[in-house]
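queue> pop job 88
queue> type: inverse folding (structure -> sequence)
queue> payload:
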């Protein structure tokens, strides 16, 4: 992962990513020579229609918390990362993951976050966090994350 300019204090990730959004606390003015590899935060409650990039309404509260945190930390830059499982055509999964990341990015922009603070990338099924041999594992791999840049 590329180094980021914002520096995080070590904070254990809670079970809920909503709490993680509220607890990521970088220093206000990181030294220019210091860089840290940040840990991705999974937006666990960001959901889409199946095999689609249509954002479901139950995603809005978690995204609104992220918007608020980004407003509070005006120096933060983030990468929004879309991921899929490995079921189906890898090329279609890649495109789906890109569109999902862009939908989240557009939500943030529509709610007042400057577009130059957000990068959106899709990784398809190339970065699994669980095995793809069970439905539980596949569902964990279908996710949207962000990382401080």
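queue> result:
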């Amino acid at each position: 992962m590329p180094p980021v300019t914002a520096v995080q204090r070590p904070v254990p990730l809670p079970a809920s990513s909503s709490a993680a959004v509220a607890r990521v606390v970088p220093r206000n003015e990181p030294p220019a020579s210091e860089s840290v590899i940040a840990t991705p935060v999974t937006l666990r409650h960001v959901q889409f229609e199946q095999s689609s990039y249509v954002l479901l309404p139950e995603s809005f509260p978690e995204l609104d918390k992220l918007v608020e945190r980004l407003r509070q930390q005006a120096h933060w830059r983030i990468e929004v990362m879309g991921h899929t499982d490995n079921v189906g055509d890898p090329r279609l999964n890649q495109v789906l993951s890109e569109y999902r990341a862009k939908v989240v990015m557009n939500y943030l922009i529509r709610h007042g976050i400057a577009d130059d603070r957000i990068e959106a990338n899709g990784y398809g099924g190339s970065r699994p966090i669980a095995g793809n041999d069970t439905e539980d594992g596949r569902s964990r791999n279908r996710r949207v994350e962000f990382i401080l840049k």
